[in-house]
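Duplicate of #3305? Posting structure anyway:
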């Protein structure tokens, strides 16, 4: 009766095994530093323009929409506080992670999937190279480093967009806006805004690598692996975001 559970349980077991080996390889040589920096360039620098664009318009849209509700209650001076809370705690990490998942989880899965179906990974094993050490761990380290940095940039650009709305609609001085942003943010909010992208980075890298390394079925299999990597990583981003938020809410 429970035969339908075998496939997902086996996949979960393989994912846990891959994750454990990838984390274990962080502390073992060789470290393939060139691959790490190359992946940091692909994931970080390559994603920077779209992250800055989305961060700016997120701040503009949030500032524009919240200004109407705030003006109803005469609370225009709180726009900086609301934008800071929303962007840094929730929206910034989630949006950046979803963008990176769509751009890089799919790229990782397609790249590794192509290597798998063309038997390049098997050739790597035959030559005595650990594919997880060479392919998975550098991507894991690179994503875990650059995604929090991309989130910080997106949050700051978003706050600049919110300031433009506050200044253009309400004539709010820059000192008043940035002071409200700085004073109303607690240490808990900043830590939460950095823990989330770090966790999301691990999800994106490991899910993309898992589906890439387990690709079967030729070029069609590569397409399926790419789609699954994006969908699964996006779902887990929201799930993990909820549980991290729940933990930090209970810490207050």
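Output from current build:
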């Amino acid at each position: 009766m429970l035969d339908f559970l075998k496939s997902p349980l086996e996949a979960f077991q393989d994912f846990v095994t891959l994750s454990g080996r990838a984390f274990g390889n962080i502390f073992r040589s060789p470290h393939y530093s060139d691959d790490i920096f190359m992946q940091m360039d692909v994931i970080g620098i390559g994603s920077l323009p779209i992250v800055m664009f989305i961060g700016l318009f997120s701040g503009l849209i949030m500032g524009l929409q919240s200004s109407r509700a705030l003006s109803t209650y005469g609370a225009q001076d709180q726009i900086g506080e609301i934008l800071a809370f929303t962007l840094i705690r929730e929206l910034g990490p989630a949006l950046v992670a979803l963008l990176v998942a769509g751009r890089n989880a799919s790229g990782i899965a397609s790249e590794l999937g192509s290597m798998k179906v063309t038997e390049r990974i098997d050739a790597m094993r035959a030559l005595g190279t650990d594919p997880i050490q060479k392919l998975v761990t550098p991507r894991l380290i690179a994503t875990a480093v650059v995604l929090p940095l991309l989130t910080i940039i997106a949050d700051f650009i978003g706050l600049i967009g919110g300031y433009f709305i506050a200044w253009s609609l309400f004539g709010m001085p820059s000192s008043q806006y940035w002071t409200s942003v700085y004073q109303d943010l607690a240490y808990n909010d900043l830590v939460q805004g950095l823990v989330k992208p770090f966790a999301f980075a691990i999800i994106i890298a490991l899910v993309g690598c898992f589906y890439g390394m387990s690709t079967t079925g030729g070029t069609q299999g590569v397409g399926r692996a790419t789609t699954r990597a994006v969908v699964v990583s996006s779902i887990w981003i929201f799930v993990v975001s909820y549980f991290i938020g729940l933990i930090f809410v209970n810490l207050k």
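Confirmed duplicate; merging threads. The chain has a mean pLDDT of 86. The first helix runs from residue 6 to 25.
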